[in-house]
Amino acid sequence: MNQYKHLKLQADEALLTVSLNRPQTLNAFTPDMMDDLSALCDELQENQTTRVVIFNGVGKSFSSGVDLNLFMQLLSEWTPDDLRAMIRRWQETFNKIEALPQITIAAVNGVCLGMAVEMIVTCDFRISSSRATFGLPEVKYGILPDLGGITRVTRLVGPAWAKEIILRGRNVSAMEALRVGLVNRVADPGDMPGIARNWAQQFAKLPFKALSHSKKLINATFDVQLAQALKAAEYAQLQLIGSEEFGAAAAQMMLERLGETPE
Predict the structure, then answer these.
(1) Among 138, 176, 234, 245, the one annotated catalytic
(2) Is 118 a catalytic residue?
(3) Catalytic pick from 13, 77, 118, 263?
């Protein structure tokens, strides 16, 4: 396997563990990290050894979502065409994770917010620490989850709970996520990594081609709907990021991060 700047890889026979590796920012996503994930997926498509992939985060959390400081800096430099290209590229990266022939398991601890939720719902299974917290807070900042999260979360939990999570923008506990179907299993923090690994080992023993083809057919039932939804999300997000509401919310957010209050 290749080496990646923002991903830590650990291969053990048919099992590959992929750890988001920016613990100083709670593994916040950057363009470079997304490029690493995209390249890894391309490599895994051709990999004849790996049968199961576990995604987790280095440190105390899975991921805090997009790196807001970097994102705001980039927004000040990008044109609308740059932003559109970025959205499409990141949508495609998460599509690649969903389309991997391997079984994918997200092992989630700590915070899992925004883009991180959009990532874990591309995985086949989600195993959560009892201390994990999930949330899609984008609407609070005048934007929306634009990388497939709206469609995939709705697919998992149904419209009523998708609206509860996305429109209210509130955080969801691990047990609540289990109750509504956002995750498959909740375990004590010390037990969660071992349970994820145990699931992975069980899948690694099953016929790979049967698993891969079955997964592909299950995903195919939603392919047309997802493609349409991604285009709609891209269009809506471009309108929202140019709005006064987003500008005001973003300014407020940056002041709060600096420990200041607006006059």
Answers:
(1) 138
(2) yes
(3) 118
Give pTM, 2 decimals. 0.91
Q: Per residue in 100-144, pLDDT tens?
A: 999 999 999 999 999 999 999 999 999 999 999 999 999 999 999
Known catalytic residue at 77:
no
CA distance 124 to 127: 10
- Please report which residue ranges of 181-243 form alpha helices under DSSP H: 192-204, 208-220, 223-241
Round to whole Å and give the CA distance between 263 and 260: 9
Query: Which one is the CATH code of 7-208: 2.170.190.11, 3.90.226.10, 3.90.580.10, 3.40.50.300?
Result: 3.90.226.10
Residue pointed to by tokens 């991903």: 7
Q: Which residues contact 131 (CB under 8 A, 6 or more apart)?
A: 109, 110, 174, 189
